[in-house]
Amino acid sequence: EQMAKELLDPLALIKDEVSEISNRLRSMVVAEVPELTLAAGYFFRAGAEGKRTCPTVLLLMASSISMDMADPIFGSKNEIRERYMRLAEITELIHVTSLIHDDVLDDANTRRGMDSLNCVMGKKLAVLAGDFLLSKAFSTAAVSLDNAEVILLLATAVNNLVTGEFMQMRITPIQRCSMDYYLQKSYYKTAALISNSCKAVSVLAGQTAEVATLAYQYGKHLGIAYQLIDDILDFTGTSASLGKGSLSDIHQGIVTAPILFAMEEYPQLRVIVEQGFDDPSNVDAALAYLARSKGIERTRLLAAEHAKLAADAIDALPESKDGSVLISRQALKDLTEKLIKRTK
Ligand code: FPP
Ligand code: MG
Ligand code: MG
């Protein structure tokens, strides 16, 4: 029965690889100075690793587009599979770096249901720990991937993360009211890392440009859907369930899709959004409009549209009869479903 379950559960199939990645990450983030090792390893300790969505998606993507029939996820590991795993590690390193630096920028005290690194060790050490992790990401890429195009995709992802964070920080009142600006920022901030890494998997696999684009599209729409749900949960979730603050966006003056949709229903809300949320009564007023509007509902629908586009990208991959390829593709599609239903 255990075996039948594993055959049906694609996550069980890559479970060993994901834990190998976790172990390797722990040994990778050792620095010369013990205190820096402690800081850099903070989010890689057992129990502090989060959902490990990046490695999961990338390994499933690898299995979904692998042309090498000797490389099913069941099979013995070979060299190319090792390289996908290195890429998954690098992506996770970049992801964790972005979280550590984000918490410094946001002055956040909690992350993953724990104290943030800046809270525990101070923001200076958090900045340096992030820089250190980023250097590890790119040194691993140089040594283990040995592919300039792939390294360029990863650098693009970091560039986009910085751009997205910057767009959010320096925003004009007009931009704050724009859905296009919001979606572009969300792509950079949240989707660019996974989309470029999915594309990188395809490049490592020696796939066609068409497949690379589909892999990229999957990551892009998955990431945007994820961010839209995140923005809903910031309004509807509790701090305890999210492992981070709730209503934190609006208190930081960050306007997200639910408010932008509410603004379409209640044009009066625009004046408030343009003024910003330094005045707490503006927060209350915006929340009151949101509660009366279909903002949350419409955001959920938009997330579902992006989840569907992600699934469509998988369906557009070249036909395959390989069992493990099909299971992995189904798992990537299931992930889009799970994502829009998540509550934390
Ligand atoms: C979280 O957003 C933000 C990110 C995941 C991206 C942060 C990007 C940077 C700090 C740029 C530098 C990145 C690198 C890799 C050097 P949020 O604050 O809306 O979400 P939260 O609720 O998870 O804090
Ligand atoms: Mg933050
Ligand atoms: Mg932030």
From TrEMBL:
Its cofactor is Mg(2+). Keywords: Magnesium, Metal-binding, Transferase. One of its GO terms (biological process) is ubiquinone biosynthetic process. GO terms for cellular component: transferase complex. It comes from the Eukaryota. GO terms for molecular function: metal ion binding; prenyltransferase activity. Belongs to the FPP/GGPP synthase family. This is Uncharacterized protein. The lineage of its organism: Eukaryota, Viridiplantae, Streptophyta, Embryophyta, Tracheophyta.
